[in-house]
Amino acid sequence: IAAFRRALVLEPSRAVTWQLLGNFVYPARRQLPEGLEMLDSAVASDPEFSTAYAYRAFARLQAGDLAGAQIHYRRGADLFRAAGDVMGVARSAIDLGHLACEEGDVATAHALFGQALDTFERLDQRLGIAIALEAFACAALVDGLRKCGALAEAEAIALAGLTRHPELVTALLALARLLEQARVKVGCHAIP
């Protein structure tokens, strides 16, 4: 922390230094309020620093502030869009989809995950594709914890992902194991 503090003395308006302190250093030390202050300083130093908004949103989410997280994820997405950063927009869609899922709005989550998946597939971004497929399955899993039938949907999404992207077999098999564990926890029967 001392080196970051010295860097800020030399260049107090360097948003990246504030963002690094806020996103990595303070949360690792379980000092979330201080981390949020650093991320606020990052945004104050550079209001167009889209990545700082994404980290700020995540910190708000960790603090239990869903509304604040949504505001910051949306602002980051707007900045990514304005800069023409389609990968940033897609990552923001994943984040906003997780928030929608958290609020019980699985339909919105699926729409956002679908937008991200389309972008990642168009750009042949394998990691992004895997993340989007995981997001779909996790949304169905969360919904499945509410009603067992959605676990079948999660399995179908994982199977469709495997069909479209066989190179992701390891990630999708791990996801299948998680789905089976969830099925056991909620007392659902295996799908033949």
Question: How would you characterize this protein structure?
Answer:
- The longest helix is centred in the last third of the chain and has 21 residues, at 126-146.
- Helix content is 81%, strand content 0%.
- The protein has ten helices and no strands.
- By secondary structure, the protein is an all-alpha fold.
Distance N terminus to C terminus?
Answer: 55 Å
Strand content: under 5%
Average pLDDT for all residues:
78
Number of helical stretches of at least 4 residues: 10
What composes the largest sheet?
A: none
The topology string of helices and strands comes to HHHHHHHHHH
The count of strands amounts to 0
Shape: elongated
Helix content: over 70%
What class, by secondary structure content?
mainly alpha
Rg, Cα atoms, Å: 19 Å
Ranges with pLDDT <50 over ≥5 residues? 185-192
Layout of helices and strands:
Layout: H1 2-10, H2 15-28, H3 32-45, H4 50-62, H5 66-82, H6 86-102, H7 106-122, H8 126-146, H9 149-164, H10 169-186
Helix pairs in contact: 2-3, 2-4, 3-4, 4-5, 5-6, 6-7, 6-8, 7-8, 8-9, 8-10, 9-10
What distinguishing features does this structure have?
192 residues, mainly alpha, disordered C terminus
Brief description of this entry?
Helices cover 81% and strands 0% of the residues. By secondary structure, it is mostly helical.
